[in-house]
Specification:
Elements (H helix, E strand, L loop, with lengths): L1 H22 L4 H17 E3 L4 H5 L12 E3 L6 E5 L6 E2 L13 E3 L4 E4 L13 E3 L4 E4 L13 E3 L4 E2 L15 E3 L6 E3 L12 E3 L4 E3 L5
Parallel strand pairs: 3-5, 4-6, 5-7, 6-8, 7-9, 8-10, 9-11, 11-13, 12-14
Antiparallel strand pairs: 1-4, 2-3
Length: about 210
């Protein structure tokens, strides 16, 4: 019985790491989810003047090696996207909402347009969201109040309309909120004054009324 128990322990010690590896976050299914989301974004880019995506985003290489993409060192999931100042024109597909490990999304100084997909509200790990200086339009989805880890929200220099969602007051860790130079209207939500960690608030060049809630 002693030999049998030793043999069983030996077999478990060999098999268990293999099982962990096959069930880990970098399984083919999860890797394909990230690749499909980025390929959807690539297909929504209508102008890529420096051919950055068309030449670098190849299905023959890992998405973690694609320009603008950062992956976690342990699980190899996409954790950050930075397409700032690439001169890109296009729209944001809802598929980006499937990148559940994403903590940073920056698309500053491009020409993206259209509305922001409500599916981005699924990115519960987001800490930094910067869409500054583009041509986004429509309203900020009220679901964006679910970003409980968000520290920076920059939507300045776009064509956003509607009211500022009161749900943004749920962003308890928010430090920077910049919605300047858009077309927001209505009252400045008083609940924004409850953001105890807020260090910078910019709402100028809109059509807002009321007093700053501080």
């Amino acid at each position: 019985m002693g030999k049998t128990g030793f043999l069983l322990s030996f077999v478990v010690a060999i098999i268990q790491p293999i099982l962990w590896a096959t069930s880990s976050a970098d399984s083919p299914h999860n890797i394909n989810t990230g690749r499909l989301a980025l390929l959807a974004l690539k297909s929504h880019v209508t102008h890529d003047p420096r051919n950055l995506l068309s030449t670098n985003w190849s299905t023959s290489t890992s998405v973690c090696n694609w320009i603008g993409v950062t992956c976690g060192s342990r699980h190899h999931r996409i954790t950050a996207l930075n397409f700032s100042e690439m001169g890109l024109t296009g729209t944001i597909p809802p598929h980006l909402g499937n990148l559940s490990f994403l903590s940073s999304l920056k698309i500053v100084n491009n020409s993206f347009h259209g509305s922001v997909p409500i599916e981005l509200a699924n990115l519960r790990r987001l800490k930094y969201l910067n869409f500054g200086n583009n041509s986004f339009s429509g309203e900020i989805p009220s679901g964006f109040g679910s970003f409980t880890k968000l520290q920076i929200l920059n939507f300045y220099g776009n064509n956003f309309t509607g009211v500022i969602p009161s749900t943004l007051s749920h962003l308890s860790k928010l430090e920077i909120l910049d919605l300047a130079d858009n077309y927001f209207k209505g009252q400045i939500p008083a609940a924004v004054g409850n953001l105890s960690n807020l260090k910078y608030l910019a709402l100028s060049d809109n059509h807002l009324s009321g007093c700053m809630p501080f």
